[in-house]
Amino acid sequence: MKKFNVAFATGSRADYGIVRRYLKLLDKDERVSLSILVTGALLDEKYGHQVDLIYGDGFHIGAEVKVSLDSSSNAAILHTMAEVLDKFGRFFSEYPPDLLIILGDRYEMLSIAIAAAMQRIPILHIHGGEATYGNYDEFIRHAITKMSYFHFTATEKYRQRVIQLGEDPERVFNLGSLGAENCLYIDTKNVPEEIKKMDARKYFVILFHPETLTGISPGKQVHELLCALEDFPDYKFVFLGSNADTHSDDIRDKIRKFVDKNANTVYYENLHPDAYHLLVKNSAGLIGNSSSGIIEAPSLGVYTINIGDRQKGRVRGNSVIDTACRSDEIRKYIRDILKLPSKVDEIDNPYYQAMAYKRYYKETLDILTVAKDNCGVKAFFDIL
Q: In which band, very low, low, confident or very high, does the pLDDT at 276 lie, cut at 50, 70 and 90?
């Protein structure tokens, strides 16, 4: 029996962590030959060389495509994108999979999608149709949608938006978010003892990334955040490293200096997904502007203080508190959260669907049977 060659492309800790359980089902299926194509921050020591996590999970890595990472300017990011496009273009010309799975909206994924589309490789895009008006992920995501043939969206609103972009409804599936379900399955053997021993509800998790479309200085934004945290010396603040977006080093440098000066802080460049989820689950709240605060934290029964416009436009549940990036407002909402009891049963998550990873797996097998015959020109689906 001929196997289907399926590839998943990844360049960051976030997208790989989201799909691990889904990929394990594909990897165990005798009809599928799965390979992981790794690039970007996952191969960079500066960001924790997280490719080791993929090896530890036992997946076959089909390619390690190393590229230069310089987040100092958009011009530097464009250089990285060009490098990814060139290297993956060459790779796909020699090793074209029957189906390429891409998640989200990273700039590296745009280059990979272009390379695959030019080689007529069918693309399955996960998390299309979403809106994030404060970041260039916004237009990257929609561009990847138009190069993809199959779509797994996280909510019905997002499914309708993908259809609005001209995609055939028969190829657009609302299956929920993998991340909203994955975070509930924590394997504690992957969690360091120091995290297990942290006093529940006596610390906050901080995860902050640049806004890349608003023109607001990331350095000024993180300064406002850090000023707010100084008013809570009785609480611990656990910082996670920023991603590789433009000017992320400004955020990283200011946070590291803050941590060096404040005994009630700790910094992790990267954590295993299980360690991160337990950390958030036992925290008093998640503060920052990560999609994790919108999608995963509600499933964990944790409130999110969502700062600024990076996630503006996303569907969100009632546990997400939006605030301007001003220290006085951030302080107010931290105090508000500390007054609240744990209200796990009252938090809703619009991204959650039970057994999402199994539905992703089943639908992937179904589309594999038609993917090879549907990698040419798509008809634009007009909404009448």
A: very high
Residue 35 bridge partners (DSSP):
7
Q: Are 308 and 216 in contact (CB under 8 A)?
A: yes
Please state the pTM of the whole predicted model: 0.94
Q: Which amino acid is at 277?
A: H
Provide the pLDDT for residue 309. Answer: 93
State yes or no: pLDDT of 372 exceeds 70. Answer: no
Q: What is the mean pLDDT of residues 26-53?
A: 91
Structural domain boundaries enclosing 68 = 4-176+353-371
**Angle of helix 356-371 relative to helix 13-28, nearest 10 degrees?**
70
Give me the residue label for tokens 């990560």.
290
- The answer on 138 and 76 residing in a single domain is yes
- Cβ neighbour number for residue 68 with a 10 Å cutoff: 9
For residue 112, what is the domain's CATH number? 3.40.50.2000
Alpha-carbon distance of 380 to 378, in angstroms, equals 6
Nearest to 106 by CA among 14, 8, 240, 217: 14
Residues 198 and 170 in one domain: no
What is residue 260's DSSP assignment?
A: H
Residue type, 118: M
Q: What is the pLDDT of residue 14?
A: 83
Task: Please count the structural domains in the chain.
Answer: 2
What are 304-343's pLDDT values in tens digits?
A: 999 999 999 999 999 999 999 999 999 999 999 998 876 5
**Residue 382 resides in a domain:** no
Residue 157, domain member (yes or no): yes
Region label for 325, one of left (φ > 0), alpha (ψ between -120 and 50) or beta (otherwise): beta
Q: Are residues 201 and 301 in the same domain?
A: yes
Q: Where are the beta strands (DSSP E) in the chain?
A: 4-10, 32-39, 61-65, 99-103, 123-126, 150-153, 172-174, 203-207, 236-240, 265-268, 285-288, 304-307, 320-323
The answer to whether residue 380 is domain-embedded is: no
Percentage of residues in the chain having pLDDT higher than 90: 80
